[in-house]
Amino acid sequence: MYACTLAPSTLNGCSGRLSVGGDSAMQDVANEDGMSEIAQQFLAGVLAHIPAMEALCAPTESCYSRHGNWAPKVADWNIDDRSRCVRVKSSKEEGYNCYMELRLPSACACPYLIVSALVAAGLDGLKKKLPLPPKKDDRATAVPTSLEEALTALENDAVMTEALGETLVRWYTGVKRQEMAYVAGKIKGGTSMTEAMQDTFVEFV
């Protein structure tokens, strides 16, 4: 017998390819890593807003068990490195298809919200001409380790709030906190985390 659940395992994710203005706009063969200025500034913007984006990328408390298990702990990046928050595929080779891969999202994240947040963060990096942090920076900003921490980061991020809309952010954070309270109540009553998550989400499948 099989049971349906939306609770993500430690290996489930929802990473995807990201390219800005076509691959040619992302590449610069004169750059050490083959990344154009546009690519660098866009990526810098994404990294700057990772704490707020985590609320959208990891929308349930069980998502946070993925940290350190193929899910990043800090907002860092590197070339072709699946252990980092953003994996960049680029080369100085002429005509190479340069793109990025955000490795933050859980399998139960909403792709529409993730794309919206990515665009907002990247455009903020372009607008402010943010400098790209060094590769494999273990001192980079920590990714929130709980849903409550991520929701607070989202509420405190003015760029994300303006881009997504204050109404959406207010309703999203409110609903998520209600879900957290419901799950906590079930667990307090003796229900396991798995059963509480199934009871909360499976009816919507």
Could you describe the 3D structure shown?
The chain has 205 residues and is an alpha+beta fold. It is built from eight helices and four strands, in the order βαααβββααααα. It has a four-stranded mixed β-sheet with strand order 1-4-3-2, with helices on one face. α3 packs across α5 (147-156) and α4 (111-128) packs across α6 (158-164). The protein is elongated, with a radius of gyration of 18 Å. The two termini are 18 Å apart.
Please give the largest β-sheet: 4 strands, mixed
CATH topology assignment = Creatine Kinase, Chain A, domain 2
**For the largest beta sheet, what order do the strands appear in spatially?**
1-4-3-2
- The outline comes out as elongated
- In the CATH scheme, the class would be Alpha Beta
Could you tell me the mean pLDDT?
86
What's the number of structural domains?
1
The helix-and-strand class reads alpha+beta
Number of helices: 8
CATH architecture: 2-Layer Sandwich
Beta percentage is: 5-15%
Q: CATH superfamily, called what?
A: Glutamine synthetase/guanido kinase, catalytic domain
Q: Which stretches are low in confidence, meaning pLDDT under 50 for 5 or more residues running?
A: 1-12
| Number of DSSP strand runs | 4
Task: Give the ordered list of helices and strands.
Answer: EHHHEEEHHHHH
Which radius of gyration do the C-alpha atoms yield? 18 Å
Distance N terminus to C terminus? 18 Å
Give the helix proportion (percent range).
40-55%
